[in-house]
Amino acid sequence: MPELVQGLGLAPFQQRWPWIGPDLQTLRDTLKPPLLPPDQGEPLALAVGDQASLLAMVDPPRPVAPGQRAEPRGLVVLLHGLGGSSEREGLRRMGLSLQAAGFGVWRLNLRGAGPGRPLAPGTYAARCDRDLLPVLRRAREQAGGRPLLGVGISLGGTMLLNAALAAPGVLDALVCTSSPLDLARCSHQIEQPRNRVYQRWLLRRLCAQTLADPFGVSAAERRALEGPDRPRSIRAFDAAITAPRWGYRSVEHYYREASPLPRLLGAHGDGSSDPPALPPTLLLHALDDPWVPVSGAQALAAQSLPGVEVVFTARGGHNGFHGVGDAPLSCWGDQLTVRWLNQLLTSRLG
To answer: 294 and 285 in contact (C-beta within 8 Å)?
Structure first.
């Protein structure tokens, strides 16, 4: 949607040297981590039931002048992707860009992730409404009448889409970057031979995160993760751990029920029912994303759902978008998110 990008005052995305191609775009933060300032987020434990809590790192908007306290334009709940946490470079950089634009930010650690690991047993899933909706209700209270916004990177966007579908009105706007919409297709893509290194890296993180549970794991789970038949794919991990932990009959059942795309298309595609009650939503996806197939976002764009805007770039990899002219602590995708939210708040949310 070039006209949307142009209307936000952004030049079309152009990958910058030396981060050329989908893999270097995807791996840039790993190969050359940005020089981020010390993390000054204030930890906030958020109860989600069963004596479990999720940990958010709370970042206020950046003050206009030293010593001054800035009033936030809105509160953004910012979610990481698979194997991530509030400490990941891409998430922190997005948070810094939002702070600089006047937003308060909650960088949420999902169940079992990062510094929130000691606060809740288990691990998260692509559809974790029973964890996420209590957090969003608490965030709504904290927003104090200001807009409550969601920004999700990769699987974090999938979770926020699922929450928005489950509880219309829970968010005032939503941005999803490189987010899986069809989990079965995404699983198939990450299993392709070209992605062998990616899948191995993700599996190591997921297995370590699961086994490090201070509340313990069952004997069956430990055998599944450490035995000779330990998972060799994300799908196998989801079959052994994610699906049964979240009450799904099988990995196929999990992928079907936790994928937002069928519900989005089914509610609108045949013309027999009303479109889903989503808030204003922006999806950003690169055509060369090596992890998440672009077909889901293309199918959604073809339906022209009310309030849903989709931006495709020819290049950018998976949550890369490192472009010509980027500021040191902000990439093209960060700036698209900030400008879109700013325009939305100015024109529609007040």
So the answer is: yes
Query: pLDDT tens digits for 288-324?
Result: 999 999 999 999 999 888 899 999 999 999 999 999 9
Name the residue among 187, 183, 219, 185 with its Cα closest to residue 202.
Answer: 187
**Both ends of the chain: CA-CA distance in Å?**
25
Q: Which residues contact 242 (CB under 8 A, 6 or more apart)?
A: 123, 125, 248, 251, 254
Q: What is the pTM of this model?
A: 0.94
3-state secondary structure at position 202: helix
What residue ranges define each of the domains in the chain, with the CATH number in brackets? 2-182+259-349 (3.40.50.1820), 184-255 (no CATH)
- For 205-217, write each residue's pLDDT tens digit: 999 999 999 999 9
d(CA 288, CA 300): 17
Tell me whether residue 90 is exposed, middle or buried, using C-beta atoms within 10 angstroms of its C-beta: 0 to 12, 13 to 18, 19 or more. buried
CA distances for 151 relative to 9, 55, 262, angstroms: 21, 17, 21
